TrEMBL record, chain A:
Gene3D superfamilies: 2.30.30.140. This is Hydrogenase expression/formation protein HypC. It comes from Kitasatospora kifunensis (Streptomyces kifunensis). SUPFAM superfamilies: HupF/HypC-like. GO terms for molecular function: carbon dioxide binding; iron ion binding.
TrEMBL record, chain B:
Belongs to the HypD family. It comes from Kitasatospora kifunensis (Streptomyces kifunensis). The lineage of its organism: Bacteria, Bacillati, Actinomycetota, Actinomycetes, Kitasatosporales. Pfam families: HypD. This is Hydrogenase expression/formation protein HypD. Keywords: Iron, Metal-binding.
């Protein structure tokens, strides 16, 4: 949750009175709020944290960071199913206690 | 050099390391503030590649780890109430409170939901007008702007069944607290890049000057960390103590002005307890009086909670850089990511989790000739 992930803006629209975008994070697509970077355009990259674009980033830096995060499994951690992970960990912990 | 080939650009990394080696004449202790930086350091073995005597001390920069136990227990209390939908980021699910975690609250019938963004919680509130929707608003200066905007949007959209349990923490007061501690060994800081991408760097020159400590704003990639260390060590060797920005591609001196303006409107500074560390003056944000109606602590009566920490967990010492995770007796035995005693083991950004994940299970090796603790 602490790390912000770079993403590329694909579409922009107003929704519920806020400027929103569809953003691609190396294959995972999410809705992102652009209220803090209102002049961000389609095709540009930004550092996105918990659904908010916080700072512009150049394309090369963004691509490099995305590759690194994918390699470290951080994209799975950020966008994967946390209930599955928590349940798996809890099940193993219970088995260890009972065993 | 066993990890070096794993770097994206091993040649560049080798050059930076050689430069650091050529610069160092005596031991130095440098703290990386952010948990994301800690993971990069341990994953790539950067601490083991550095010359003897350069010690990296892991800082308190993991929001999940430092959220106070009392707030975690308040979250459990609210999440277990009938009619409440409790929304949280996924990494809070298994953070241990006094008796249970959010995962267990859900198992006991609580409606706990994981969201990617605080705006998702606001949407859930809009779709469930008969329910009370509460969002668990924790995090550093990077997470606070999204949470501030969400409260602002709740008011703008007239959504009244939404509130936030707020426990935000701030980096500069934590640096101040670390530097004024009698146990402090830190001589230089790698500041957290993404915090600075929001807040800018204006607060740091006075900290660097007051404590005569170099502060280098640093990113999260392995080369970023090496460059941050190189610049910090260079300053230390020259007796300098200035603020440098080694993460210019994402950090501007003024940060993000729109986000800072929203933060100033929605939040106000407050004293905040840090889990394992204690109260640090003016180190957190709470909702300002103007937004009191969206404060979950105001909306729900959660007073009178008695907290009880595990007697075995030494995460407070880990968070202050006093011990390394594998110096704790419970590390890797009674405390593992599957069965964590403390938040530093359960959080994906926690130092204990990093050590466990990357198999730093053994106790640290004997001090080298350039051991930092020998410096007077």
């Amino acid at each position: 949750m602490c790390l912000a992930v770079p993403g590329r803006v694909m579409e922009i629209e107003e929704r519920d009175g806020a400027r929103m975008a569809v953003v691609d994070f190396g294959g995972v697509v999410k809705e992102v709020c652009l209220e803090y970077l209102p002049d961000l355009r389609v095709g540009e990259y930004a550092i996105v944290h918990v659904g908010f674009a916080l700072q512009r980033l150049d394309e090369e830096s963004a691509r490099r960071t995305l590759e690194l995060f994918a390699e470290l499994g951080l994209l799975q951690e950020e966008f994967g199913d946390p209930w599955e992970a928590a349940a798996a960990a809890a099940a193993i912990a219970n088995a260890e206690v009972q065993g | 050099m066993k990890y070096l080939e794993e770097f994206q650009n091993p040649e560049l990394a080798r050059g930076l390391l050689e430069d650091i080696r050529a610069t160092v004449t005596r031991p130095w202790a440098v703290m990386e503030v952010c948990g994301g930086q800690t993971h990069t350091i341990i994953r790539h073995g950067i601490d083991q590649l550095l010359p003897d005597g350069i010690e990296l001390i892991h800082g308190p920069g993991c929001p999940v780890c430092v959220t106070p136990l009392e707030v975690i227990d308040k979250a459990m209390e609210i999440a277990g109430r009938p009619g409440v939908i409790f929304c949280s980021f996924g990494d809070m699910l298994r953070v241990p409170g006094t008796d249970r975690d959010l995962f267990r609250v859900r198992g006991e019938g609580g409606d706990v939901r994981v969201v990617y963004s605080p705006l998702d919680a606001l949407r859930i509130a809009r779709e469930n007008p008969q329910r009370e929707v509460v969002f668990f608003g924790i995090g550093f200066e990077t997470t606070a702007p999204p949470n501030a905007m969400t409260v602002h949007q709740a008011r703008k959209q007239g959504i009244t069944n939404f509130s936030m349990l707020v426990s935000h923490v701030l980096v500069p007061p934590a640096i101040e607290a670390i530097m004024t501690s009698p146990d402090c060994r830190v001589q230089g800081f790698l500041a957290a890049g993404h915090v600075c991408s929001v807040m800018g760097t204006e607060e740091y020159p006075q900290l660097a000057e007051r404590h005569r400590v170099p502060i280098v704003v640093t990113g999260f990639e392995p080369l970023d960390i090496l460059e941050g260390i190189r610049r910090t060590v260079r300053q230390l060797e020259r007796g300098e103590h200035t603020v440098e920005n080694a993460y210019q591609r994402a950090v501007r001196p003024e940060g993000n002005p729109a986000a800072r303006a929203m933060l100033a409107d929605v939040f106000e500074v407050t004293d905040r307890a840090w889990r394992g560390i204690g109260v640090i003056p003016r180190s957190g944000w709470r909702l300002s009086e103007r937004y009191r109606e969206y404060d979950a602590e105001h909306r729900f009566d959660v007073t009178g909670i008695t907290t009880r920490e595990s007697g075995l967990c030494r995460s407070g010492e880990v968070l202050q850089g006093l011990i390394k995770p594998n110096q704790c007796e419970a590390f890797g035995t009674t405390c593992t990511p599957r069965n964590p005693l403390g938040a530093t083991m359960v959080s994906s950004e926690g130092a204990c989790a990093a050590y466990y994940l990357y198999r730093r299970l053994a106790a640290p090796s004997a001090p080298s000739a350039l051991e930092v603790s020998s410096v007077g």
